[in-house]
Specification:
The complex is a heterodimer of chains A (282) and B (359). By secondary structure, chain A is of the alpha/beta class. Chain A has one domain: Alpha/Beta hydrolase fold, catalytic domain (Rossmann fold), CATH 3.40.50.1820. Chain A has nine helices and nine strands. A nine-stranded mixed sheet of chain A has the order 1-2-3-5-4-6-7-8-9, sandwiched between helices. In chain A, helix 3 crosses helix 4. Chain A is globular. With 359 residues, chain B is an alpha/beta fold. In chain B, a hairpin with an 8-residue loop joins strand 2 and strand 3. Chain B is globular and about 55 Å long. In chain B, 29% of the residues lie in helices and 19% in strands. The two termini of chain B are 25 Å apart. Chain B has one domain: Alpha/Beta hydrolase fold, catalytic domain (Rossmann fold). The relative contact order of chain B is 0.15. In chain B, helix 4 crosses helix 5. In chain B, strands 1-10-9-8-7-5-6-4-3-2 form a ten-stranded mixed sheet, sandwiched between helices. The chains are: A alpha/beta (282), B alpha/beta (359). At the A-B interface, helix 6 and helix 9 of A face helix 3 and helix 7 of B.
């Protein structure tokens, strides 16, 4: 049984048991907001903001996977107008931090010397659970599901091939050992801190990150994928692009993030049959 | 693209043509500032039309409460009556042969302990210039090794509610912006603002820092509270790099955007419309526009002209109120990144120049 199949099997042993509660302050005439508590691997209770457009569905639906950081904003107003949106927190983040609260810096290297203990095993399982929740929502159009976020989007799309489109905003796990050489910023600097203190662990870290390398799963992705490359520093390597083949498109970010946001929004909304919406002056 | 009012800087020779500055006037401390009578006007409600095309012309109304100075004088007095009892804890697990990383903990307003990450070059002896960063709303403080490598005692604050400073006060995210927003005395940002001010006091008093060379920088929440820091500690803060400042035009901003964090106010008023007056009263005490005239240090501000998070109208509003040497860089096509990553070099050059650092 492969590493990822074993994870699926293990996750299936923990029912999601979602608790969905209408959240009045996130309700308008044009959409209804909910808070959702649900269970992931080991029964850890997770959290998400769900929003459903007013009117008769089904609607296109968007899963926003968590960023690397303590806090995720709720779904944006413009997205709530167009999509069933589910913005989730993985274990350790605010609103999902009992009994485990993530440390920053610290989370990125937690357990990284063994693929089975690496914290991203559970975090990716959390994302898979979020995908299951959204795909099962009665108002979500199964033919128009999308996922966006950092590169755990690729793991999610590979292991839950229900998505029509996937937007990857930035690399995280991809090519991490190489990308850490280009700066001193966290979370990648955490790898330097670890290997400085424990150089003998480099092989183990390398082997773990190889398991979590998105390129290793990319052939299982059915969605069209937009890979947004950072304006500076290394982006997406040839191995990943080759694995995605003609399903992958690279969008090179420039120095105008509002223009980039418009272009990415247009790409995604076009694949879901919805109009593009600029956040500025909306 | 830059704009500003070029006036000779009377304090320092400035051979940088791009830095357009105004002469410093003798600006009183916040407690001595004469109150201005501002009121909410019908004109302010028409701002949206102007905003989409010419944000610099938008009229942002920020009333200044008559007892604004008294409120902050008393708040400062309460904070200063508490011994910050700073502790520096070495973190060898995060340090390198070149950079020493420490965790700073100190006691702030309301006896709440807050934190900061500090990084300094090991090789340099003697007091170091201070580069103090204030994190954004959803960001956790970083360890600024690249700034330390350039010769700074580099600090990133974790005010209350941030991780490592949320044991007692934990408003959650989303939530901080509207936490107790109907009462200026218990509004959570009251302590948060003072965590920044007391952080300056603590840093200036560390033996390994040069209290005469302290600069503040940050974007969004860090950009707004950098201005606040300059207003409440005008004798210590020597320069401010402020990106897309948040907490400016707080009452108007939610009408200009549906992006968080200002969307929190829209959501709050959706379920508590009866609290509109109380909310506007509270935020008038906290609006950075009302602090801006007390800033004396040179300010470099950069904003994105398509910023959906901190609308550019509000950035222009606070910039207009600054009465100090100042430069504004605006970036068409930029949103909340406000010119990053390209503007980073200008920020560093500004800080280096103002603080006499040869990086």
């Amino acid at each position: 049984m492969s590493f990822w199949t074993e994870l699926d099997t293990e996750l299936a042993e923990f029912p999601a048991r979602p608790l969905v509660e209408r959240y009045e302050r996130m309700c308008t005439e044009r959409f209804t907001g909910y808070r959702v508590w649900f269970s992931g691997l080991d029964g850890h209770r997770l959290f998400g903001f769900l929003s459903v457009p007013a009117g008769e569905g089904p609607f296109p639906a968007l899963l926003e996977t968590p960023r690397h950081g303590s806090v995720n904003n709720p779904p944006h107003y413009n997205d709530r107008l167009r999509y069933v949106t589910f913005t989730m927190m993985h274990r350790g983040q605010r609103l999902a931090d009992v009994p485990f609260a993530a440390a920053y810096p610290g989370l990125f290297t937690l357990g990284v010397t063994d693929p089975r203990t690496y914290v991203y095993r559970a975090i990716i399982a959390d994302c898979l659970r979020g995908a299951e929740f959204l795909a099962a929502h009665p108002q979500a159009d199964p033919a128009r599901l999308a996922v966006s976020g950092e590169d755990p989007v690729l793991h999610t799309a590979a292991r839950r091939p229900v998505f029509r489109a996937a937007v990857v905003n930035t690399p995280l796990l991809h090519d991490a050992l190489h990308r850490r050489e280009h700066g001193e910023s966290y979370p990648l600097e955490g790898l330097d801190d670890l290997l400085r203190a424990h150089p003998e662990r480099e092989t183990a870290v390398r082997e773990t990150l190889a398991v979590y390398e998105p390129a290793a799963l990319a052939r299982d992705i059915r969605a069209e994928v937009l890979l947004a490359a950072p304006a500076e520093g290394p982006g997406w390597n040839g191995e990943l692009l080759a694995a995605l083949g003609d399903r992958g498109t690279v969008y090179q970010r420039g120095e105008q993030d509002a223009s980039d946001a418009r272009a990415i929004d247009a790409w995604l909304s076009g694949r879901l049959g919805m109009p593009g919406m600029a956040r500025f002056a909306s | 693209m830059s704009c500003g009012t070029p006036v000779p800087d009377t304090r320092k020779a400035d051979d940088e043509p791009a830095l357009q500055v105004r002469a410093r006037r003798t600006t009183p401390r916040i407690a001595d500032m004469a109150p201005r009578n501002r009121t909410w006007s019908p004109q302010a409600r028409s701002i949206r039309v102007v905003a989409m095309t010419e944000p610099q012309r938008a009229h942002i109304e920020v009333p200044r409460p008559p007892d604004f100075d008294e409120f902050w004088t008393e708040t400062l007095r309460l904070a200063e009556s508490i011994d910050p009892a700073p502790r520096l804890i070495e973190r060898p697990d995060l340090s390198s042969p070149e950079i020493l990383v420490t965790e700073l903990r100190y006691v702030s307003f309301g006896h709440v302990e807050v934190a900061a990450w500090c990084a300094r070059p090991r090789a340099t002896t003697g007091p170091l210039p201070i580069a103090m960063h204030i994190p954004g709303y959803v960001s956790e403080p970083a360890i600024l090794k690249s700034w330390a490598r350039r010769g700074y005692f580099a600090v990133d604050l974790a005010p209350r509610g941030k991780l490592r400073a949320n044991a007692v006060v934990n408003p959650g995210f989303p939530g901080l912006l509207v936490d107790n927003i109907v009462d200026r005395y218990s509004y959570t940002y009251r302590g948060f603002y003072l965590d920044v001010v007391r952080g300056i006091d603590v840093l200036a008093g560390l033996g390994e820092t040069d209290e005469t060379r302290l600069g503040v920088f940050g974007s969004s929440q860090g950009g707004g509270l950098g201005i606040l820091a300059g207003a409440l500690r005008p004798d210590t803060v020597r320069c401010i790099a402020s990106g897309c400042p948040y907490l400016c035009g707080i009452a108007d901003a939610p009408r200009l955007t549906h992006s968080y964090p200002y969307e929190e106010i829209n959501e709050f008023l959706r379920i508590h419309p009866e609290q509109t007056t109380a909310l506007k009263e509270t935020v008038s005490y906290y609006d950075v526009v009302n602090f801006a005239p007390a800033v004396r240090a040179p300010v470099f501000m950069h904003i994105g002209l398509e910023d959906d998070v901190c609308p550019p109208e509000t950035g222009f509003a606070v910039f207009r109120e600054l009465d100090c040497p100042k430069e504004l860089a605006t970036f068409p096509g930029s949103g909340h990144d406000a010119g990053q990553p390209g503007v980073q070099q200008r920020i560093e050059e500004f800080m280096d120049k103002q603080l006499g650092v040869r990086a």
